[in-house]
Amino acid sequence: MALEKTSAKKKKLAAPKSAAKGAAKPARGKSATHVNGEGARLATTSGRPNRFIQDYDAAPQEADFVKLKPSYGLFIGGKFMEPKSGKRFDTINPARETKIAEIADAGEADVALAVESARKAYEGVWGKMSGKERGRYLFRIARIIQERARELAVVETMDGGKPIRESRDVDVPLAAAHFFYHAGWADKLEHAFPGARVAPIGVAGQVIPWNFPLLMAAWKIAPALATGNTVVLKPAETTPLTALMLAEICQQAELPEGVVNILTGGPTAGKALVEHRGVDKVAFTGSTAVGKLIAKSVAGTDKRLTLELGGKSAHIIYEDAAIDQAVEGIVNGIFFNQGHVCCAGSRLLVEESVADEVLRKLKRRMEQIRVGDPLDKNTDIGAINSASQLETIQKLVAQARGEGAEYFQPSRFNAPKKGFWHAPCVFSNVASASTIFRTEVFGPVLAVTTFRTPAEAVAKANDTQYGLAAGIWSEKGSKIYWTASQLKAGVVWTNTYNKFDPTAPFGGFMESGYGREGGIHGLEAYLKVTGGVA
Amino acid sequence: MSVKVFKTVKLFIGGAFPRTESGRVVAVKLGANEANLCVASRKDLRQAVEAAEAAAGGWAKASAYNRGQILYRAAEMIEGRRPEFAQLFADTLGWDAARANREIDAGIDAFVYYAGFTDKLSQVRGAVNPVASRHHVFTTPEPVGVVGLILPDAFSFGAMCDDLASILAGGNSVVALLPLGDGGKGGCPAVLAPLAECLATSDLPGGVVNLLTGELAELAPWFGSHMEIRALSYRHEDRATLALIQKAGVENMKRVVAYGADTPPLKRITSFMEYKTAWHPVGA
After folding, report:
1. For residue B46, which of A15, A475, B185, B206 sits 20 to 30 Å off, Cα-Cα?
2. Chain B: nearest CA to A504, how far in angstroms?
3. Which of B252, B267, B277 sits opposite A511 (nearest CB)?
4. What share of chain B is helix, strand, coil (3-state, %, to 5)?
5. E strand or H helix at A329, and its extent?
6. Which CATH number fits domain B25-281: 3.40.710.10, 3.50.50.60, 1.20.1260.10, 3.40.605.10?
7. What ipTM does this complex have?
């Protein structure tokens, strides 16, 4: 199927009027412009020009080279096949609401077939293979992802709506890095658990979300395979394409049939997969609500379970922070990937003495955020992943406005007519008990409150059922260490935010789930560890 | 000879020895005599969790060295009460001296072993992560907080001490249920008394360990659903009750762990710990 013609359409859409007049281009990444799909409105609402706002020419990422099929089957036993369910659904581009491809909707019979295929591969080939050989396949996959990085990045952006800058610089390179890192573990597992015996668990059923489609697939598949398990993975309904490309990459890498099976579909397929008796290990990343349903369905079975769930992560700004850097950190913390990030720094806690300054600078910085075509290389915030997610965000925002929190969004936000968009926004003077401060929004929505002492900051930060991540900004080392030690969160970013690496374990405390992904600690989720010194 | 003084076996909550608030007791045979053991109620459990929650912060913050010394002290206390334990095991379980001493040795071994593990944990299971960006990134294990421990009907003093010491070594506080089983037959719920006395005199802050005797069927659902119990070590034989606890525990995403006999000691500790990863930029 011919891809949407990105470049031609794009130029018309995003080239702002002033840019045509040859407005001076600022250095890349600095004092950025606001470009949205309708073309930027350069005047502020007050009518005065904003001296911080300048515009870029459109910088569309070429997409014509991507060759997608008009329709995709299920990847079972090393082959793409038609779904036994006979059902299909469309995957669309959330920035344009155009159909990209038709996707198979796996049913229970398809799940059964995929689990059987994974079992056969586990017992016949993969479970017996030496770690060295398993590692070789994973190294191959890492390399092919690197080779096809440009294509993967474009498809990720088209299918999910995230800015090409992020899929190109974060999602795809990290996915390759995850395979490379775990490839090296495959023949060194005895070093991870000295004095103990390790063995694979068997067949892993894995269900992943739509916010980092390829990266989450890599987070799930790479450690499972390195440790000798086989997998059946279900990508999210709205973002199946890069997982299907990963299936092609498995073919290219000549991975033995059935070691990786990829089932596209919706909640029916996901439920059937985690409940299948032939699955020995369930791994899920997604909402806490669904995570709890899965935990209930797994209760009373011998299945192993790891869950990476929601969050409402606190971002603490002390008065002795480098404020300008902290403001960049806040923006990166909440607006990265449209705020569709489980560890997003969605609760901002600012020390009272600098609250006005931080908020003023934050708002000024937000005026410069470019919302628009995800395929434009200058775009900071792309499209909301789906209509239903947009509705969820809008509802929570409306509720917060109704509850009286002070609302701010950039003055020039004009959503393109097609596609799903939400302005980056901030609620200030938010009460700790209010919905917007407690509920995960999973969108570009920040809630701000203040504190007076480090103890109060910690108490407010920990006042949540979640425990995924947190951020701390201060120039004082001892205060950073103390605060980090007090926070109940699996990941603490200090003077930085939203950084990821395959060597660094990721995962939450409390209702943000259990188990870790990445690092030496992530291996445990896919191994039986027994025996050892007493 | 003067009239012998019987020992009253009560509960151990917050460092004190209260009777069950319910007033319920069950008579179990202790040699020639009978002891009236408390049948702990849901409210006793709640009070025990409250005490454990209050004690958790201080215990977690104590230095690993200090925690190690206190666990070692517990071993010293058990050694000092060896005759009392041996007599109790003979009276309730009919164990001969050799068997009793093997079990007491195992219990002492467990406390000494885990005492020496407290200040090794972050070195053997912590990490400095070689990330590709310019950041210093390290991972350390931290206690989860209040851990529930449901002991089996089939009594082993060594295993019980192993369960307690491994959870404590990580810096958690514990609320343990010693099931009364069928009127205490087969088990040894009365061990609560000498064990609690050992722990109470080990410099272990009150509330770090709380011991209850009670009925599994009555208390298990509350162990499962209590929001302040962050993790639970399930050592009982009844699988149906485990499933019930797992379901109830979903509400606060409780870490319910039912490990086998071949689980390595390090994993017994880290099963009740969380890994925290901290990032900081590197640059001049």
Report:
1. B185
2. 6
3. B252
4. 45, 25, 35
5. helix A323-335
6. 3.40.605.10
7. 0.95
